[in-house]
Each structure stands twice: as structure tokens, then as C-alpha cells.
Design goal:
Rossmann fold; 12 helices; Class I SAM-dependent methyltransferase
Length: 262
């Protein structure tokens, strides 16, 4: 959890990770707009987002959010909340609150919808967090949780291993192993009687190898210690050669989706 707190103290690393998907996705539908299209939230609903990050989801969908929604954006990181406030400005029906998902500071049955996008895999005590979400949801409320799968960005490790065999497992997909497309429904089932998954299609087609290097470096302090100076320059040169072998592009698999739980 300490490494996660360092990585997401503010939105700098998150911005890099979002940017690569915005610029190089084969599916030109914006991820945040696609998410909004999947939500079935009625007029006048009270909504809680846990782990709102820098607020990009709400910024992207600002013109589509009903004025009747009452929205609380929360994050464990005060730095993230500050970035979200800065990005969104003063919106009458949005408030901000620092919240630990494992101990949500609201009475029972307060929300029509709870959202937790790409964050449950970071939570140390997920059963407790899911119990808290179920508690604050109204009986007919809905929980939306997006996540990744085991194959997400799998070519990143292949590239690292090709450059240096000792780097092959540095970015092991521990997130999907914790709460992913393959095992998320099983974890949600004890708390919700109906769980559905919808997957977002398409991968990445990248022609700028610096974007790949930046993505890797945004993944944590450990990889930053290894890929630095001359070694980083050599890795970027290696990526350029791999790009040429593949016809001027490097393809990266995406495996992302959204759980709807009631």
C-alpha cells in the first residue's frame, strides 16, 4: 500500500497512463465516454465515486451529467483530490471528500450508485471494502467497478524481457491477479445477487516509443531505479528497432472492462 500511496500521491503518473490510451487506442471511442454510456443511473440519484483520481471521467462527460445528480467524489489521496478539484472547478452538484474505501463515513443506504474504477486491486482488505459499498448503497442501488485482465499490456513485459531477461517480470500484472476481469465476479458475488461484465474492445497501436518508455517509468519507483541514464537510452533504442521490425508500430494488448453489480 505504501508503494501505491507514493505512485498516486498526485495525478502525474496517472496522467501518463491515461495519455497513452487516449492517443494510441485502436478503438477511437473514448474510454471515459464508453464508461458513461454503460451507466444506468436515474434522475435525482445520489452518487459516490471511490478513488476518483484526477476527475478525468467527470471532466470528459461534464456536458452529459444531469444537474439532478448529487455527486461525491472521493479519494484516499489528498493530492489526487486537489488535482480533481483543479480540473473540475466549481460544479454545484459535485463535492469532494477524502475517504478510505475500507471505512466509508456514511450511514447505511445513502447512495443510488457507487463507482470504483481501476482501484479495487489496490485495496488491502477488499471484502471489507465491498461490504462497506454494499452497506452504503440503497437496496436497489448499483455498483460499477472497472478493472483490467491478465492480458492487459502483456507486451510490455515481453519488450522488457527482450531487452534484458532480468527485467521480464518487473511489471507483473498483480492488479488483475488481485481484482481483474477473470476473478472480479467471484469476489463481488458474496455481496451482490447480480453481477455482469462488459469488456471494452481494442488494443494500442503505438508509433512513439518514448510513450512506451514513459508508461513503464510511471509504473513505480523500482523500475525507475533500474531504467535510468545509459540503460534507459539503450532501451529506447531497442524499442525503435522493435518498432521497425513490426512495420513502424508496436501493438499492445488491452484487456479492460466494467462490472455492474446489483
Amino acid at each position: 500500500m505504501e508503494e501505491v500511496e507514493k505512485q498516486y500521491r498526485n495525478s502525474a503518473n496517472l496522467d501518463i497512463r491515461i495519455r497513452i490510451h487516449q492517443q494510441y487506442s485502436e478503438n477511437k471511442t473514448d474510454w471515459h465516454e464508453w464508461l458513461f454510456d454503460q451507466y444506468r443511473i436515474g434522475s435525482g440519484s445520489r452518487i459516490l465515486e471511490l478513488g476518483c483520481g484526477n476527475g478525468q471521467f467527470w471532466l470528459k462527460n461534464r456536458d452529459r451529467v444531469p444537474d439532478s445528480w448529487v455527486i461525491t467524489l472521493s479519494d484516499f489521496s489528498s493530492g489526487m483530490l486537489a488535482d480533481a478539484r483543479k480540473n473540475l472547478g466549481d460544479v454545484p452538484n459535485i463535492c469532494f471528500r477524502e475517504i478510505d474505501i475500507q471505512k466509508i463515513p456514511y450511514e447505511d443506504h445513502q447512495f443510488d450508485a457507487v463507482i470504483a474504477n481501476h482501484m479495487l486491486y489496490h485495496v488491502p482488505d477488499r471484502p471489507r471494502a465491498l461490504q462497506e459499498i454494499r452497506r452504503v448503497l440503497k437496496p436497489q442501488g448499483v455498483f460499477y467497478a472497472s478493472t483490467i485482465g491478465k492480458k492487459h499490456m502483456l507486451e510490455i513485459n515481453t519488450l522488457l524481457k527482450g531487452f534484458d531477461p532480468e527485467l521480464g517480470d518487473v511489471l507483473t500484472n498483480v492488479q488483475a491477479a488481485a481484482f481483474g476481469l477473470e476473478n472480479g465476479a467471484k469476489q463481488l458475488a458474496p455481496f451482490f445477487h447480480q453481477v455482469r461484465l462488459k469488456e471494452f474492445p481494442g488494443g494500442l497501436r503505438i508509433d512513439d516509443v518514448q510513450a512506451i518508455a514513459d508508461y513503464i517509468l510511471s509504473s513505480g519507483t523500482e523500475i525507475k531505479k533500474i531504467l535510468t541514464g545509459a540503460k534507459l537510452e539503450a532501451f529506447i533504442q531497442y524499442l525503435e528497432k522493435e518498432k521497425e521490425k513490426q512495420g513502424g508500430w508496436i501493438h499492445i494488448t488491452k484487456a479492460t472492462g466494467l462490472f455492474e453489480a446489483r
